[in-house]
Amino acid sequence: MKDEFQIKLDVAGRLYPVTIKRGDEQDEFLFRKASKRVQQYVLEYRQYFAKSIEDRDILALIAIQLAREVVLLEGKNNTEPFTQKIRQLTKQMEDYLQYK
After folding, report:
1. What pLDDT is attached to residue 8?
2. Average pLDDT over residues 1-20
3. Among 24, 67, 90, 95, which residue's Cβ finds the most Cβ atoms within 10 Å?
4. pTM (2 d.p.)
């Protein structure tokens, strides 16, 4: 039995094979969900532009939109300011306890 298997994802009317490790059902689920999300965007853009642009241009716009969302999420997941504040407060508490 192979350690990997392929699924085919439909994006803008074309099938793309994706290799997944056996037993990684979550990865398969995420790929399928992502493919459906892209397909929804394709339909929305086709409706918006009334098919006046090519699929490759639609896919480029979708890539930009998804990359923007990733960048936005990266900014929200930045815990560095909180980590610095915790370090500062910890130092203040240590200093206070040291002199007490």
Report:
1. 94
2. 89
3. 24
4. 0.67
